[in-house]
């Protein structure tokens, strides 16, 4: 089986698993809504702290207190995102091991792991924030190097959330465990991610075309209004597929058993060590 075909088969297997529990698609949407609420709350606090009616927005500057509030907003949004990712992984794990997950059972799983979810979310957010600060203050070569470091971090932490959900480790041990699983099983082969990425691109093309046509015929604002919910749906599906794929891969790597629904996806070939 060629790499492209294998990527597509893995994406289809993830889709079949997801369609068995369509209600789990709500979890990424919940994540988006709660993140917006967190941003709105902290954004409002920044406005209260730093806005001066005498000068308006023309000379608006962040104070140390305002900066701290934005940092707390970023941390809060990271916790929210990780929490709902864990819920999605919990639901997917329940399905591929023969269960019948619900939104409630998925959220219960995530809630019971808050003790490891919060430290990991703060750790990964801090790493990302440090890299962004370095990148903004570095030259072209420095930005390239930092970009590679960031990419490497994302790759080696690909299985971090399943590790959190199943093994409930601390941040450093989660990083080590995820990196070990990555190196010892499938190395550089990210076929499943490529397949899911392909699905996302294919799904996004008609969204862009429809929004552009509506914007050209009526008004750009209406085109944006139509595009936003459609993009949110595509993002929800992509996020859910990724969580299913992560969970299936983790299950296969740690048990050497083919997950339910992935029997035809050729997992042993797709993830053999490099």
Explain what the structure shows.
The protein has one domain (3-270). It has helices at 3-19, 26-50, 64-96, 103-112, 114-136, 140-156, 160-167, 171-186, 191-217, 220-255, 267-270. By secondary structure, the protein is an all-alpha fold. The radius of gyration is 21 Å and the shape is globular. It is built from 11 helices and no strands. The longest helix has 36 residues, at 220-255. The model has no long low-confidence stretch (mean pLDDT 84).
Write the layout of secondary structure elements.
Elements lengths: L2 H17 L6 H25 L13 H33 L6 H10 L1 H23 L3 H17 L3 H8 L3 H16 L4 H27 L2 H36 L11 H4 L4
Helix pairs in contact: 1-9, 1-10, 2-3, 2-10, 3-4, 3-5, 3-7, 3-10, 5-6, 9-10
Count of strand segments: 0
Q: What structural category characterises the helix and strand content?
A: mainly alpha
What characterizes the major β-sheet?
none
Distance between the termini: 17 Å
Overall pLDDT level: 84
Number of domains: 1
- Please trace the helix and strand order, writing H or E for each element: HHHHHHHHHHH
